[in-house]
Amino acid sequence: YGGAPGGPAFPGQAQDPLYGYFAAVAGQDGQIDADELQRCLTQSGIAGSYKPFNLETCRLMISMLDRDMSGTLGFNEFKELWAVVNGWKQHFLNFDNDRSGTVDRQELEKALMNMGFRLSPQAVSAITRRYSTHGKITFDDYIACCVKLRALT
After folding, report:
1. Name one Pfam family in it (predicted).
2. Residue 86: exposure state from Cβ atoms within 10 A (0-12, 13-18, ≥19)
3. What is the largest CA-CA distance in the chain?
């Protein structure tokens, strides 16, 4: 009764819609590593029209939720990650006022404040210097920044 990815594993069992994305890349161990997470997120289209997540961002995302320190995520951890990343994506979209696909320092500061982070202007400037290219932060780097901030708080 394996069925198609995303299909019911057993007759009558409702399948989580995210399971199809997860199962399509998970190894025999039912876990996904950074390479598999990168493929999964790319195939799912969660990054929208933005460039796919780089491998380092995927490693950061795994480390954020890897409670058993295996370097991988199980399905429940993946579901949690999906919800968190989607929330951050909504913030990114809400604060990318000029629809450039990037946020600048002011947009980043507003987004972080909206998420409950209270940072000094110096901290926001340091984050902008670290994660921006020519003063603009891409979606991928924005997610990496959010992962780091979540880990620090």
Report:
1. EF-hand_8
2. exposed
3. 57
pLDDT tens track for 74-103: 999 999 999 999 999 999 999 998 888 899
Question: Which candidate, 13, 54, 50, 51, places its Cα nearest to that of 37?
Answer: 54
Do 103 and 95 meet the contact criterion of CB atoms below 8 Å apart? yes
Return the CATH class of domain 19-152.
mainly alpha
CA distance 127 to 13: 45
| Amino acid code (one letter) for 17 | P
Residues in the chain: 153
pTM comes to: 0.82
Which residues face 103 on adjacent strands?
Answer: 137
